Structure prediction request, 522 residues.
Amino acid sequence: MDYSSMSPQSVKELIRKGEITCQTSGMCNGYAQANLCILPKELAFDFLLFCTRNPKPCPVLEVGDVGKKEFKFMAAEGDVCKDFPKYRIWEYGELKSEVTDISDYWREDFVYFLIGCSFSFESELLEADIPVRHIEECKNVPMFNTNIELKSAGKFHGNMVVSMRPIPDELVVKAVNVTAEMPRVHGAPIQIGNPETIGIKDITKPDYGDSVTINPGETPVFWACGVTPQNVVMQSKPPIAITHAPGHMFITDVKNTSLKF
Amino acid sequence: MDYSSMSPQSVKELIRKGEITCQTSGMCNGYAQANLCILPKELAFDFLLFCTRNPKPCPVLEVGDVGKKEFKFMAAEGDVCKDFPKYRIWEYGELKSEVTDISDYWREDFVYFLIGCSFSFESELLEADIPVRHIEECKNVPMFNTNIELKSAGKFHGNMVVSMRPIPDELVVKAVNVTAEMPRVHGAPIQIGNPETIGIKDITKPDYGDSVTINPGETPVFWACGVTPQNVVMQSKPPIAITHAPGHMFITDVKNTSLKF
Prediction:
């Protein structure tokens, strides 16, 4: 099945039915994808402030009203409990389980946060004739923890997570320019070619996602990643949090072009 | 005294001493200015969410930690209770008083919000040889209530306020381009040349600030304005809120150029 040219509605129907539970890179070309973090209202101000202070890894696309599972802006209809292919349940910073539906976990005091995802700009990279390796290799994007400490806010603190794409040397500047236009889905890279300066010791061993081939003549390029909130949850240890599983995103009804500044 | 070429530190010292209590347009060229809204923690999530949902009129530059008067990011030192030339105290949406120091009103549960201000891009307009009429006429910028309903969030709802600058017809496109680069201080205009479509009946009678001359061959251009939170406070009627007086801004230590995307 070629999901790249399918509509968000069609793909989400398959996700809701549990027929797609895999990662979503390359699906529904041209449409923005989103990361998820769900927290109780009591922690929502601190977390929204954390995102406001760290817009590069945590660009807020939408925040739900307290207790509401329905999307307000990024999708015409849907249910935040069913529309991601896979979720992670966290207690005091520890991963408790992975599930494909969180309806049974939902609480009336929960607030969901949709955060921009770099999968959104991959169709723009392809459009500009810049190859995207993990799509070519049918894998999840490689993601790494870094030593980049973020600005804390109330109970939340932690380090940035990045995604990596190997880019042919002569296309690196083009890749910067294409993605810089889209700050709401992480924008321009945060590091080019020097993984060790951001604390990445082994580029072949990602902390999340899959390892991909880096060919001679290619530079590893690092973008801020929406898995950052999971790292922040691990480090800040809130009593309860629900996130998506890395790479298993929400496909919005909003085109990337409408997220450009 | 020519405040336009003075440093933010020098001007703020005069403001703290009560020697400057006037509006700040044209002061400290090149440095970003900021609007203010202070609310109790209890309302802070709703208000931050309101700003997140309405980034054009309410671009958040900084949010203080609960109870903290010291700036974290936009200024090296200072006191949110003294560093604006004039404040407004609001109770249940009614203006109770205007003061030049709010130290006596400060509460341990207060959170301050600094919001981007269009005064920030005026030096960029001047640099591009685009005249700024209210600076030429030594006045406050004219500001208007509009019929543009904003996205509500929790207890907060209301309409957008805009600032108006008459721009020579042949420079309108240039003015759009110059300001579009600065989304954190309201960015590109929201209306060009048709005040009635956004509910402005009489362009010579601003709701806030001063009236300025519009010459033949000039188009009135409207930018989203950081007085919007005051309008939202009037419409949403929180028990207590403190804002700056329109035009009487905080001058940050951050250069406009560093706020560009």
About this structure: Chain B touches chain A through 19 residues (CB under 8 Å).
